[in-house]
Write a structure and sequence with these properties.
The chain is an alpha/beta fold and about 450 residues long. Helix content is about 50%, strand content about 10%. It has 2 domains: about 190 residues, MutS, DNA mismatch repair protein, Chain A, domain 3 (Orthogonal Bundle); about 220 residues, P-loop containing nucleotide triphosphate hydrolases (Rossmann fold, 3-Layer(aba) Sandwich), CATH 3.40.50.300. Helix 8 packs across helix 11 and helix 10 crosses helix 11.
Length: about 450
């Protein structure tokens, strides 16, 4: 089953970001090649839902970090190679015979510009194949490397023993290839074994991504989560924080089938939204086999992740914020009805309606979610009265982010605690900002 998510979730978690802003993707996107960057973005678009695939990717990236692997290829090599490979015009194929003036004039062979690009492309590919062969033998296939068990690496190793790569690797790297050999390699690389060449290049782009991600993990002190079988239904994460915040406060959380709903309360500005985004980002990256901003993490693999944090009105269909919330919950309900085990975040559930409806709907929906013990739900709300009723549900874990008052100034610890809080400091913040005084002065000025 594919791991599912949607645009709303990716926007909530700032996976791709908006134009001109940093994103979670941008934390890792420092690849040496353009196609490596494209592959990285594709990995973000399609997280994994297979425990073995997640752990294998994490182990490979972690290994590259431990040995301080460097992407030893030149980006210019790939530029020349890709420009060469994109030309599939049979008329530009090099002939084993040196072109005569008559053939050049009749356009039956490559033009001088084409000829130069072809030769540069062949030379670039031969350099790339030598480098990947060296990388396999000197780093990736050493004892203790997880790449020894990687099917794609094994496939590439086998391919390098077959034509045309076996022939290329036998060439003297310091010698200039004669025209006859150039023509032979052109026929093989660009036409006969075209898909094989593309397969090797794609493998190298994957290495580019992995080495880049490994370097990011090392520089930022991220850890690699361990994926557990789906049937265990557990999430244990310690010291996790938002990767884009400086001096962020880490939090700990354990979720099991006996506590698969986290009911979160706290005053405005106490950090509820940041907490949920931090958790959502960690779960998203963990399902990619990528490192996360945490001290420790293990998690049972899920089928998807859906968040509702910054839900906009849908004016295009005439939907109010409340109706947009209802449609969002309906979408989640459909996913659950299909038997999927998913990770769900709702920030300020039913904020778009009146207190009475919000109270009743929060109890009804949370109670329904509580019956889906194979999925995980994190729900924040200001309707603390609903929490008192929901305490009857055995599998709801009540957490809050506290506020400490220093005189009339609220101070926030951003550290998760057990229980429900009735902290409400909205009017205190308004008074501290002197808003009412400003409005009063304006009114007095008009009466004078």
């Amino acid at each position: 089953m594919l791991f599912t998510t949607d645009k709303q979730t990716q926007e909530d978690l700032n996976i791709y970001g908006k134009q001109g802003t940093d994103s979670i993707l941008s934390l890792f996107n420092r690849t040496a090649t353009l196609n490596g960057s494209k592959l990285l973005e594709e990995m973000f678009r399609y997280p994994l839902s297979d425990v073995e695939a997640i752990n294998a990717r994490a182990e490979n990236i972690s290994y590259l970090g431990r040995i301080n692997a460097v992407f030893s290829f030149s980006s210019e090599q790939f530029d020349r190679a890709e420009q060469y490979m994109v030309n599939t015009d049979e008329r530009t194929k090099l002939s084993s015979e040196k072109p005569t003036l008559e053939k050049k004039l009749s356009n039956l062979v490559a033009s001088n510009a084409d000829y130069k690009q072809i030769v540069e492309g062949i030379n670039a590919l031969t350099e790339i194949m030598r480098e990947v062969h060296s990388l396999l033998n000197n780093i990736l296939l050493l004892a203790g490397s997880p790449f020894k068990n990687d099917p794609e690496t094994q496939s590439i190793q086998t391919l390098l023993t077959t034509e045309p790569f076996s022939l290329i690797l036998q060439e003297n790297p310091k010698a200039k290839l004669p025209h006859e050999k150039l023509a032979g390699y052109d026929a093989m690389l660009r036409f006969r074994y075209r898909e094989t060449v593309k397969q090797v290049l794609q493998y190298i782009y994957r290495l580019d991504v992995y080495i880049t991600v490994a370097r990011t993990a090392t520089e930022r002190n991220y850890i690699f989560p361990k994926a557990l079988p789906k049937e265990e239904h557990i999430i244990k994460i310690a010291g996790f924080y938002h990767p884009q915040l400086k001096n962020a406060v880490g939090n700990n959380l354990t979720i099991t089938p006996d506590s698969n709903i986290v009911f979160l309360t706290g005053a405005n500005m106490a950090g509820k939204s940041t907490f949920m985004k931090s958790l959502g980002i960690a779960m998203y990256l963990a399902h990619m086999g990528f490192p996360v901003a945490a001290r420790e993490m293990e998690f049972s693999v899920l089928d998807g992740i859906y968040t509702t944090i910054n839900l906009p009105d849908n004016l295009g269909i005439g939907a109010s914020h409340f109706y947009a919330e209802v449609l969002r919950i309906k979408k989640i309900a459909k996913e659950l009805s299909m038997g999927k085990n998913i990770f769900v975040i709702f920030d300020e559930l039913f904020r778009g309606t009146n207190v009475k409806d919000a109270y009743e709907a929060t109890i009804a929906i949370t109670t329904a979610f509580a019956k889906k013990r194979d999925s995980v739900f994190v729900i924040s709300t200001h309707i603390i009265e609903a929490g008192e009723v929901l305490k009857e549900q055995a599998n709801i874990s009540f957490k809050y982010l506290p506020t400490r008052m220093n005189g009339t100034t609220p101070e926030y610890t951003y550290t998760l605690e057990n229980g429900i809080t009735d902290d409400r400091h909205g009017m205190i913040i308004i008074n501290n900002e002197g808003i009412l005084e400003l409005l009063k002065k304006r009114k007095e000025a008009k009466t004078q």
